[in-house]
Write a structure and sequence with these properties.
single chain; alpha+beta; Muramoyl-pentapeptide Carboxypeptidase, domain 2; 2 domains; 9-stranded mixed β-sheet; 3-stranded antiparallel β-sheet; globular
Length: 420
């Protein structure tokens, strides 16, 4: 995958002022280096130090961190000393397929485009949260990071070493184990939390290197960061949208757009791993009240209402029905049908964000169900019959009661299981 360097035009003073403004919009920088001797800090000035307390002077090379259990197979070359000038991240583009060399070159030549960075954007389901990951080249992506983060060598060394960089608010909601490792999917090893730092956009919750992106099944080079320098992003958005395929997401990241989700911006939702092909990809628009409007064509092709045992008719993703029926039939056969109350079923397909966030719920894909709601609220042990739980697990479902912050009403499709 091509990694373009800076394109036309030198870095100019006013752009640096805009970079500082962008940092103030993002808010205070939070850094957490998780090796021995380093601690988290809420001090915004720590963004210019090594890991909030370790390493050398800002912008100087430092050794890649050594973390017990870190798999070297997921490391890339350390980025070395930062020699570039920071760039503003003004527009993020996400396509369903790799953005080819010809299109990339045409974008670089567009009036108002000062620099372009190619990367991969993907989504991974973690405990009913759809985590938006950017798989990047740490050496070049760092130019677009907010505030003083481009000069913070330890951040980029850690990402290169195969660790995760994640926003602090998002990190608090993720089920890291006692050693700060996180399971992204069952198909790859756990990833280690390297740093907590602000991200460039709501479209990115966390950053990994390209090796991790490849292991997670990311579409190579399906996304771009674009800096417009002194030009307003509006100058670029319209011709960019016309140039790219219809279902491409083109989102402004300037100060006006940072305060909330732009209802006119098309977003892309895609899961990775063994469910990706069955569930597919869809685009959507935020429509207020925590809800989204998915592409109607995707809904017609993938969502339907069908009868199942115990519950009657339910509306879900077509991919879930064979194993959902198998699980419910086995529950009936084993005399446990009374353990699921149809009157306390809270639904399957509901296109929305997780409450109070801009993170998609798995219900948006129609692959999660909530049972026996009153007795199984979040943060409780719940009252779900454990044999019922084991049957659902047998048929490829994960249970929210196993999560660090429990959600015992919740079952979600975790793998494909075909009844014989």
């Amino acid at each position: 995958m091509r990694r373009p360097g800076p394109t036309a035009g030198p870095f100019r003073g006013p752009a640096a002022i805009r970079a500082g403004l962008a940092a103030s919009v993002v808010g205070a920088v939070f850094l957490a280096a998780c090796s021995a001797g380093t601690t988290a800090t809420d001090d915004p000035q720590a963004a210019g130090t090594e890991g909030g307390g370790g390493g050398g002077a800002a912008g100087q090379p430092s050794a890649q961190p050594s973390v017990a259990g870190l798999d070297p197979a997921y490391a890339v070359e350390p980025p070395g000393r930062f020699k570039s000038l920071p760039r503003t991240a003004d527009i993020v583009v996400q396509a369903q397929d790799t953005i080819d060399e010809e299109t990339l070159a045409a974008i670089e030549r567009m009036k108002g485009v000062e620099a372009v960075e190619q990367l991969s954007l993907l989504q991974v389901s973690v405990e009913n949260r759809v985590l938006n990951l950017a798989a990047v080249d740490p050496a070049t992506y760092r130019r677009y990071a907010p505030g003083e983060l481009p000069q913070n060598q330890e951040v980029w060394d850690r990402i290169a070493a195969g660790e995760l960089a994640v926003g602090k608010a998002v990190a608090k909601r993720l089920p890291f184990d006692d050693d700060d490792f996180l399971e992204l999917t069952t198909e790859v090893p756990k990833i280690h939390l390297g740093v907590m730092a602000p991200q460039i956009t709501n479209a990115v919750d966390a950053v990994v290197n390209e090796k991790w992106g490849e292991a997670l099944g990311a579409t190579p080079g399906n996304a771009l960061l674009i800096s417009t320098g002194l030009a307003a992003p509006d100058v670029v958005v319209e011709p960019l949208t016309e140039m790219l395929p219809k279902d491409t997401s083109v989102e402004r990241l300037d100060a006006v757009a940072r305060y909330g989700l732009d209802p006119d911006a098309v977003q892309t939702a895609q899961v990775v791993g063994s469910l990706a092909e069955a569930i597919g990809v869809f685009t959507y628009r935020p429509i207020g009240g925590g809800r989204i409007a998915p592409d109607p064509a995707w809904v017609r092709a993938n969502i339907s209402t069908q009868p199942v045992p115990i519950l009657g008719s339910v509306t879900c993703n077509n991919a879930i029905f064979p194993q959902l029926r198998a699980a419910l039939e086995e529950i009936v056969q084993r005399g446990l049908a009374d353990e699921i109350n149809p009157d306390e079923y809270a639904g399957c397909y509901y296109p929305r964000f997780i409450a109070g966030t801009t993170t998609l719920s798995n219900h948006s894909f129609g692959t999660a169900l909530d049972f026996n709601v009153p007795g199984n609220l979040r943060g409780t042990v719940g009252e779900m019959d454990r044999t019922v739980v084991s049957i659902f697990k047998k048929w490829g479902f994960a249970w929210g009661g196993d999560w660090s912050y429990t959600d015992p009403m919740h079952f979600e499709m975790a793998r494909i299981v075909r009844p014989g």
